[in-house]
């Protein structure tokens, strides 16, 4: 059985569970014992923060101890350190190379790259090189922002100056797109060949997380997702975000080189990304199956929880039976 080690497992119960269903033995790691995904895995391990000098050796030691053949990072937090030190980890690290990671982490670098390779990207400027005739509305966006943080919409020069004077994170100014926003969950093999791309609509999202969305079998979006992923050199999963402008262009606004927040939707639609990841770890070379997924599958989200209690000095999942509370009936 393939053993998969997840780093920065956090709240990604959905991903750990999907790999278990795909037949993997799962080891979840996080720095906090309250990360819910730890309790969805076969084994859990607390590890130091990403910035700790022993982070990589800790991950490598766990890979050896559990004989894991695949490492899957679940947030962006450790991408750079993992991509830069993958040779020190005796397993397949399901992550793009360091150049792709740096480009995806810095929205300005991503924009420059897309311009260079001829992929559509919204007109974007650095604050000290703004043109006289900026086409408002524009967004002030933190270059290394995430979760929709550090984004401010300006309708005129006065508003733009106001935000630029107040942001402290390195930022850029980007033309606001007018059309509908889409998110494409892609998966590439070790040579960055795109194996599938599942676009979805963003019916509702909060803080960058999809709350409601629907898979859409749209040829242009599928091919666009694949083209962007292959140009960047994605390995494993990525989430490509773009708008469809009135003229049909699909400017890319954000790429996350990991499983997207909407992961349960492409999974339910038949993406089989966990199975593909396990196949790559076993040395297989799965064939691309672009567009093979179910159209019109809808995700609608709610809060979930994990109830824990202490057993012999260690937190364990509390059995559901113990949660049954007798409610007094009638008065
Ligand atoms: N150029 C743009 N035009 C219109 N809306 C945008 C643009 N860029 C970002 N947004 C909106 O802001 C949200 C977050 O921006 P994004 O670039 O995805 O950053 P992140 O997800 O890393 O915080 C997007 O999902 C989108 O709704
Ligand atoms: Mg985004």
Automatic annotation (TrEMBL):
Looking at the record, the residues that make up the ATP-grasp domain are 111-282
Tell me yes or no: is ATP-binding among this UniProt entry's keywords. Answer: yes
GO CC list: cytosol
- Which intervals of the chain form a coiled coil? none
* Matches recorded under Pfam families: ATPgrasp_Ter, PylC-like_N
Which UniProt keywords are given for this protein, alphabetically ordered?
ATP-binding, Ligase, Nucleotide-binding
Query: What GO molecular-function term can you cite, just one?
Result: metal ion binding
PROSITE patterns reported in the protein's UniProt record: ATP_GRASP
Q: What are the boundaries of the signal sequence?
A: none
| InterPro entries named in the record | ATP-grasp, ATP_grasp_subdomain_1, PylC_N
Q: Which PANTHER family would you find in this protein's record?
A: FORMATE-DEPENDENT PHOSPHORIBOSYLGLYCINAMIDE FORMYLTRANSFERASE (PTHR43055:SF1)
What is the protein name for this chain? Unannotated protein
């Amino acid at each position: 059985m393939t053993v998969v080690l997840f780093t920065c497992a956090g709240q990604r119960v959905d991903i750990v569970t999907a790999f278990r269903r795909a037949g993997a033995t799962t080891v979840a790691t996080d720095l906090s014992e309250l990360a819910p995904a730890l309790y969805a895995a076969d084994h859990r391990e607390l590890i130091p923060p990403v910035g700790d000098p022993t982070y990589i050796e800790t991950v490598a030691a766990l890979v050896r101890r559990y004989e894991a053949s695949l490492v899957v990072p679940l947030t962006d937090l450790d991408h750079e350190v993992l991509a830069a030190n993958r040779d020190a980890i005796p397993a397949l690290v399901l992550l793009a190379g360091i150049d792709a990671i740096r480009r995806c982490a810095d929205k300005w670098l991503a924009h420059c790259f897309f311009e260079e390779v001829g992929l559509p990207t919204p007109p974007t400027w650095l604050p000290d090189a703004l043109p006289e005739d900026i086409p408002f509305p524009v967004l002030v966006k933190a270059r290394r922002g995430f979760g929709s943080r550090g984004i401010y919409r300006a309708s005129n020069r006065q508003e733009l100056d106001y935000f630029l004077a107040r942001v402290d994170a390195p930022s850029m100014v980007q033309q606001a797109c007018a059309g509908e926003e889409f998110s494409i969950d892609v998966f590439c093999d070790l040579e960055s060949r795109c194996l599938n791309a599942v676009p979805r609509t963003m019916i509702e999202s909060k803080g960058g997380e999809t709350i409601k969305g629907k898979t859409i079998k749209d040829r242009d979006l599928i091919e666009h997702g694949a083209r962007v992923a292959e140009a960047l050199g994605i390995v494993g999963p990525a989430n490509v975000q773009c708008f469809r402008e009135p003229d049909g262009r699909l400017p890319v606004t954000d790429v996350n080189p990991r499983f997207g927040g909407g992961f349960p939707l492409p999974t339910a639609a038949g993406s089989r990304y966990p199975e593909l990841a396990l196949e790559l770890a076993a040395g297989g070379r799965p064939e691309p199956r672009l567009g093979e997924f179910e159209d019109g599958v809808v995700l609608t989200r709610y809060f979930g929880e994990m109830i824990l209690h202490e057993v012999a000095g260690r937190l364990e999942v509390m059995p559901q039976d113990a949660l049954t509370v007798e409610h007094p009936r009638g008065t």
